[in-house]
Amino acid sequence: MMNKEKKKSYIEEMKKNFSSHNSVMIAHYQGLNVKELDELRKQLREKGILFKITKNRITKLAVKETSIKELEKYFEGPTAAALSSDPIATAKILTNFAKSHEKLKIVAGFMDGKVLDKNEVAIIATLPSLEEARAKIVGILASPAQKLLSILLAPGSKIANLARAKSLKN
After folding, report:
1. How many CB atoms are located within 10 Å of the residue 144 CB?
2. How far apart are CA 85 and CA 83, in angstroms?
3. Residues 6+ positions from 86 with CB-CB distance below 8 Å
4. DSSP string for residues in 82-104
5. What CATH class has 4-127?
6. Domain boundaries, the chain
7. What is the b/e burial string over 6-24, where b = at least 16 CB atoms within 10 angstroms of the residue's CB?
8. Separation of first and last alpha carbons in the chain
9. Closest CA to 29 of 50, 51, 7
10. Residue 93 in contact with residue 43, Cβ under 8 Å?
11. pLDDT along the chain (170 residues), means of 10
């Protein structure tokens, strides 16, 4: 059991964590063993995502004083929160992990001031990551330049091939 000072510091830490990240994904982890939780934590940590197993009653107190106060009702049972500035990466990791570990249940999420249900989190998981989106845009922008260059170079190479073929005949 926590004493009053520990509770206060826990609430302040949680308020700071919730306020400093633009997205929060909430999941229930009942039935996952320590090894599985460590594996999930490792995957999230590699992307800079904080995974916090919460003390629900105290977390609800912290949430009330933040922008994510609408998530308070989801802190029931064995709850964990994944906090990050990249909601797409968080949703992808949690969704992929839940596919191979049925005991992890995504409950809700929060991004851009909006509460997301588990279906919306699953949809976000299908979006391309920032790196993937940038690569696609660069590919789209580079494609016309490559086509233009090949069109411009084509007549010159055809003339050179024709001249070579003509010289070989003589």
Report:
1. 9
2. 7
3. 23, 47, 48, 49, 129, 130
4. EEES-HHHHHHHHHHHHHH-TT-
5. alpha beta
6. 4-127, 128-170
7. eeeebbeebbebbeebebb
8. 99
9. 51
10. yes
11. 80 86 91 93 93 88 85 90 91 93 93 89 84 77 66 62 69
